[in-house]
Each structure stands twice: as C-alpha cells, then as structure tokens.
Amino acid sequence: MSVKNAMTADFLRSAYGGESMAHMRYLVWGEAAEKEGFPNIARLFKAVAYAEWVHAKNHFKVLKDQVGDYTVPAGAVFGFTDIVENLQGAINGELHEIDQMYPVYLETAKFQEEKDAEKSFHYAVEAEKHHAELFKKAQGLAKEKKDMDNNPFYVCPVCGFTVEGEAPEKCPICGVKKDIFEKF
C-alpha cells in the first residue's frame, strides 16, 4: 500500500531520519561506554541501535513508493561527553519520541487512514517505552560507577521491542515468536 497523504509521508520521512540518527548515535555512545569500562551498557547501546534500525527500516518500507529527493527535518540529540550524560541524551531522545513525536505521528496516520504508517508508528512508540526504561536503569548504575549485569539483550526484528534477560515467548508488541529475536 502506498502512502496517500503528504503529511503522513512527511512524518514517516522525519521519523526515518530521527531513527537513523539514533541508530548511529547509539553505536557511537556504545563504543564510548566500552572504552569507559562499561561493556554491558555498551551492549545495551548496540542492542537499542539495532532496534532503531528496525524502526527506520519499517518507516522506509512504508515509503516505498515515495521516490525522489527530500529534505528531511528530524529532531536529534547531540553531545558526546561521559557515560552518564550520554545515557541522559538517550533517555531524553526516547522520551521525546514517546511523549511528543510519535503520538502526533500516530494520530495523524489514524486520522488519514494510513494503516501501514499507523502500524510502523505504533511499533516504534511502544518499543521506545522499553528503551527509555532500560536506559534509565543503565544510567542509575553508571552514576554509581557500576555496569549492568552480564545478561543478554533480545530485540524483536519486526518492531524493535528490546528486553534484558530472556526473550518472551512472543513479542508483546507485534506478536512474533521468540525464535526470531536477535541476541546481543
């Protein structure tokens, strides 16, 4: 299905840009966490970077028939300091998506009856809630100069849901079975 409404298409492009930048930012911050002696927080950043790639891919696929060059305005967190501040940047970015960006994009897609965009935005906003909580947990530990436990992180390759420890039998957001989750 092609996107019919220009506003929803613009929101998809903006979300794609924001998720793409989050993907790269989390890889950079993960590398920094590793160097600062926080290998498990580094893995969290890498896992969530993958989840953000999933979101960007989903938005991009919905735009499959929107061929051409576009200027893409997208919000982004910048800064590269220490582990605690980098985690705060991650928390701020996730909360912006949860509280500001995706609710507007999702309601617009619903209003404009853009079902594929609605699903893509829904997947992203629900996954971001889990990302924010994981980053808050990591930041609390980092403030005490502690790393996260050496538990695996699992990411759903369909919606980007991310969990520490064990993958659920089926994804609570999109319903896929645990055997396709990516392990970090």
From TrEMBL:
SUPFAM superfamilies: Ferritin-like, Rubredoxin-like
Top enzyme class: oxidoreductase
Residue span(s) of domain Rubredoxin-like: 151-184
Cofactor(s), by name: Fe(3+)
Keywords from the UniProt entry: Electron transport, Oxidoreductase, Peroxidase, Transport
Domain Ferritin-like diiron residue range list: 2-146
EC nos: 1.11.1.1
Any one GO MF annotation of this record: NADH peroxidase activity
InterPro entries from the UniProt entry: Ferritin-like, Ferritin-like_diiron, Ferritin-like_SF, Rbr2/Nigerythrin, Rr_diiron-bd_dom, Rubredoxin-like_dom, RUBY_RBDX
UniProt cross-references to PANTHER family, sorted A to Z: RUBRERYTHRIN
Protein's UniProt name: Rubrerythrin-2
Native organism: Clostridium colicanis DSM 13634
